[in-house]
């Protein structure tokens, strides 16, 4: 029966130059849906847990979901799965734009990149014709020029995913960029691509994507489209203001982290960096959607002197990062720094957070002026774009910024000033205000991250129901449900933002109609739980334990300074034991055999135990 | 008055839902390559331009068609294609100055907008109203009003 999978995996080995295809493993697709789940399963089976993220032995999986390439609303996404250099955990980074759909039209659900090319190369996938070409002449170029040059050499209608100088120079916070401005942004996947001497992947596809029953599928997505169009967040808020609408909301709620989380709560000037202000100040040129999107939250923006420029963004997290976290209230400077992140291929969350960390180290006298090479004081808007450039090229202080905040703060003797979990920087939601978001950060399988269990929805936005952010009771259960649902959403190809409006019932219906595999809402959540647990097993096999499920000491011990939640700390200890219990894990956070059997993960569980024992034996 | 297709690149969000709706309506699959409409995107500018057959009054495709397969249909106020008369010469593909007609070698058909029998699916699906199907005067008057508004603002400022 025709379904929305292409049922084909493309495998490219850059060491040998060998290109091959194989059928998609159907049982993987059923149990893990696609995207994040399928990629993690393939990685765990094929690579294991023992490789250096930047070695040729580390594989990179570009994985679409069953909805990618269909007309399911806002569902054209793909996922990059590998082991990440920033955290050492499973790295999975999601991106929109057109690249994922184009991969699907070229005929592939998954593209696996293995090995390492001797010299810089790019991969040209033109339907079933796949070639590896030299890229010496493009190496060193920034993302927009790289994209244009690769299209000129191949096909103007092709789509390009590539790295910028940051990925080439193995920055641990480098992204993979597609269509110039969409990013598989977090966990340093750009460095993995750079370590393979792979500058870009160009893809052109002209094949169809089928669904088993057109009428049923169209009815299912019509329902989703209607709910998305009528919802105030997805139908009005995001198209009009983009994610930057959150600046004022978080500020008014007292959940805005400020000055590297030192002076969090609320700032008077937050509105000057908001999505609303970007319209008033004429930064917004137009809104933009990814493939098949109905929300169109993307911002095409321009800036004015002395920070004149043109590009896309920022998203809320980048706007906050270069803004409140660095104490910069100039929206033009913020946008310009964000443009540079896109052009150079840097994570626009980890980058500003690392700069904010450097600013605190500098103000405390831990990071000496001769190392800084500039006035790194909080609030210095004029240095932002330059610091981003220095990071990508590893010039001066940029060489340390490129390592992320944890390694930077450690070098200067104060790792506690890195606002990170598992060495990945925390995004724009203050865990002393949003207790449940703190739990999500601490337990996240890819380190500090908001988009794997977006507790802001219930705690601030009241979606699907309003929960008091200051309360810890009951948060463990909600956090688990959000994490599991997100696992399934990330596997399907849907954009996470759809879940502001649609829930497991509609998502399960759309995925079932596309794949012909019937998922009830419970089964969909179960698949998400399976994905979450497989990631957990992977991380534990890599040496992570329950002790790593924590937050920076500042958030657990230093009372918040400002806003309605002044005086509060994050009470992780009140939530974590219940969370472990609900997950069916031991008190130490180790998955139990019974739970793993229930989820069909007994093999992965045995593999994890074996790896942990082997590591212990080696240490003895 | 008859309706016409109007495109508004200033409103296009580059989401390409139009291509998906079109290919599904005509082919039963999702495949932008077989869509009658394309949103061409300038990535550096974040700009999309939706393009499809503009149903010319004096249509070059119909003009060169040796069999009358492509013909002006007054009732539809458009240029339609009659599969039964088509000999597959592809002159229409060469003749269209906009590149809005192509030929599918697999299915032996001309790929060109047919207005979906009066209910264009691209129009129905577009979330930003970048493609409209309406009376020519109605569409033009709305545009006029928009620009007149700008004059109004300028004069208000002067006063």
Kindly state the percentage of residues in helix of chain B. 25-40%
Determine the mean pLDDT of chain A: 97
Shape of chain A, please?
A: globular
- Give me the Rg of chain B, rounded: 18 Å
**In percent terms, what proportion of residues of chain A is strand?**
5-15%
Helix content of chain A: 40-55%
Major beta sheet, strand line-up of chain B: 1-8
Report strand order across the widest sheet of chain A: 2-1-6-3-4-5
CATH topology of the largest domain in chain A: Aldehyde Ferredoxin Oxidoreductase,  A, domain 1
CATH topology name of the largest domain in chain B: Alpha-Beta Plaits
- CATH superfamily of the largest domain in chain A, called what? Aldehyde ferredoxin oxidoreductase, N-terminal domain
Quickly name the level 1 CATH class of the largest domain in chain B: Alpha Beta
Q: How many helices of chain B?
A: 5
Shape of chain B: globular
Largest sheet of chain B: 2 strands, antiparallel
Topology, number of strands of chain A: 17
Name of the top-level CATH class of the largest domain in chain A: Alpha Beta
What is the radius of gyration of chain A computed over CA atoms, rounded to a whole number of angstroms?
A: 22 Å
Oligomer: heterodimer
CATH architecture of the largest domain in chain A: 4-Layer Sandwich
Roughly how many Å apart are the termini of chain A?
A: 54 Å
